């Protein structure tokens, strides 16, 4: 895999991870809500005007464009497993930004993911 191809994949993964983190920050700002018809408009409006949600959507759109560029250069059987890097990024960022648990079992899982991505990238 060339440096350009890997860079595109990594950029797409990081944009996708950023989207997840921004969406989480947005939902934290809005708070818990019930899925009811009565809530559809008020909650929908709160989400529509929440800057983190807008940023998350923008990151998703950008990641889609970058991902399409990556797929034009790399086999999907190689590129798709690289999305697992996002699990690692999000677990660490969620721990740092949101105080989410990073248990030994999660750390072991992250280590396995890193090993798997390395093996796929080298194949």
Task: Compile the SSE list and pairings.
Layout: H1 3-30, H2 37-48, H3 51-71, H4 76-79, H5 85-98, H6 104-122
Helix pairs in contact: 1-3, 1-5, 5-6
What can you see in these coordinates?
There is one protein chain. The protein is mainly α and 123 residues long. The protein has one domain. Helix content is 80%, strand content 0%. It has 6 helices and no strands. The chain has helices spanning 3-30, 37-48, 51-71, 76-79, 85-98, 104-122. Helix 1 runs antiparallel to helix 3 (51-71) and helix 1 (3-30) packs parallel to helix 5 (85-98). The radius of gyration is 17 Å and the shape is globular. The N and C termini lie close together (9 Å). 17% of the residues are buried. The model has no long low-confidence stretch (mean pLDDT 91).
Short recap of the structure:
With 123 residues, this protein is mainly α. Helix content is 80%, strand content 0%.
What portion of the residues fall into strands of 2 or more residues? under 5%
What Rg do the Cα atoms give?
A: 17 Å
Structural class: mainly alpha
Question: How many beta strands in the DSSP annotation?
Answer: 0
Order of helices and strands: HHHHHH
- Percentage of helical residues? over 70%
C-alpha termini separation: 9 Å
How many domains? The number is 1
Mean pLDDT across every amino acid position: 91
Low-confidence segments: none
Biggest sheet record: none
Globally, the shape reads globular
Total helical segments: 6
